[in-house]
Design goal:
Layout lengths: L3 E6 L6 H15 L3 E8 L7 H8 L4 E5 L6 H13 L4 E4 L2 H6 L5 H4 L3 E5 L10 H12 L5 E4 L10 H4 L4 E3 L6 H7 L6 H9 L3 E5 L8 H14 L4 E5 L5 H10 L6 E5 L4 H7 L2 E4 L8 H9 L3 E3 L5 H4 L7 E2 L6 H13 L3 H15 L2 H16 L4
Length: 379
């Protein structure tokens, strides 16, 4: 029998962390492990996107509904269930379970735990999210292994802890064949109609929240509209900032130029027909959307944060924004990228980089070896 791994996540959509987890579980099944995704959510939530996608892919998933916040009682039930079910490893993918389960010493938890840090949002000081992030930074010191998706994320940790031997770096990985197959699935009619009316197409993908910088992208788009006859911007995702972004595109007269279709299960299909992916984030780890675009030959313009400059070869495999650029600079950079006749060389470099350095097979092997070291199992 393979190692039994319980993946723990409270997901708000189908973005980088969720896609990484689904790819990892798919590959773990191929390698003989016994993974299970436990997807937490608030009572009354029927189907979360990660649950729907896991079921579509035939992956083991369990929906667990619980009241939000520091729900110690319900998390204790999860731990009891994991113990009685014989799980060997708890693998957390977010601050919720880092805090609720990771904060318990191993002598109490009784199952070794690994926490993958996909990135911090740098919430406003003294806000609820800020408090959770502070608790997270304390809780991860109790888990047996902490995984960062890139070297740059060590800056997010206290310097002394960042050098601790329990902290490892495992980059996110992709199954390129699966992504190319996903790209052939049909798109929604609203997206097809929009693409038929607009060119070039600029794409943004992610949670609609302040740290992703999509407000800056909308503010920059009038500059793009001055340069091209009928450009279009597609912003894929849901989040608390959606209302403000819809209002802002109206204020700028961009109602017909900006499409916000919400959550889309087939992002690769949109990447296939777009002309440029823009990642204007203020903070990031290693976005799966970035890797997907590189693999599919879609040029990328990204902020110089997190692991993105390294992945893009300091600009050799894509375009990097100036640090802390404003929306005018962003607009000019988008225009320059769309006009650049040397884009193909960057696309070729980035496609090769993904296949060589960011495969799902390499990611799964690294995690498997980490599990084995935690359990004292010989590889």
């Amino acid at each position: 029998m393979g190692i039994k791994v319980l993946h723990l996540i409270d997901s708000g959509g189908l973005y980088g962390a969720e896609k990484m987890l689904l790819s990892l579980v798919q590959e773990q099944l191929k390698q003989g492990l016994e993974p299970m995704i436990l997807s937490a959510g608030e009572p009354g939530v029927v189907d979360k996107p990660i649950e729907v996608e896991a079921e579509r892919l035939g992956l083991p998933v369990m929906a667990w509904r619980m009241k939000p916040g520091l729900n110690i009682a319900e998390s204790s039930k999860i731990l009891h269930w994991a113990l009685s079910s014989g799980y060997d490893i708890l693998h957390s993918h977010g601050f919720k379970f880092n805090v609720l389960l990771g904060g318990r010493p191993l002598v109490i938890r009784r199952i070794p735990m690994i926490a993958t840090l996909h990135g911090y949002v740098h919430a406003k000081k003294f806000s609820k999210m800020w408090l959770y992030e502070m608790l997270d930074r304390v809780a991860i010191t109790f888990v047996q292994r902490v995984v960062l998706v890139g070297e740059a994320m060590k800056k997010e940790l206290p310097p002394k802890f960042a050098q601790n031997k329990k902290v490892r770096v495992i980059p996110n990985g992709l199954d390129v064949e699966t992504i190319n197959a996903e790209a052939n699935r049909p798109l929604g009619q609203d997206i097809l109609d929009f693409v038929a009316r607009h060119s070039p197409i600029v794409l943004g993908v992610g949670r609609l929240s302040q740290e992703k910088g999509f407000d800056r992208l909308i503010d920059a788009f009038p500059i793009v509209c001055k340069e091209f006859d009928n450009p279009g911007l597609i912003l894929v995702g849901e989040g608390k900032q959606k209302g403000a972004l819809v209002q802002r595109k109206g204020e700028l007269g961009l109602q017909s130029r900006v499409l916000m279709p919400g959550y889309c299960s087939n992002v690769p299909g949109i990447q296939k027909i777009a002309d440029l992916l823009v990642v204007p984030s203020h903070t990031e780890g290693l976005p799966i959307t970035l890797l997907e675009s590189m693999a599919m030959g879609l040029p990328v313009l990204a902020s110089p944060v997190g692991e993105m400059p390294s992945v893009l070869g300091k600009g050799e495999g894509g375009y990097l924004l100036p640090p802390d650029c404003d929306h005018d600079q962003l607009g000019s950079c988008i225009v320059n990228c769309l006009h650049d006749t040397a884009r193909q060389s960057k696309v070729s470099w980035s496609s090769k980089k993904v296949s060589e350095s960011y495969s799902v097979q390499a990611m799964e092997l690294s995690y498997r070896e980490l599990y084995q070291s935690m359990l004292g199992v010989q590889a």
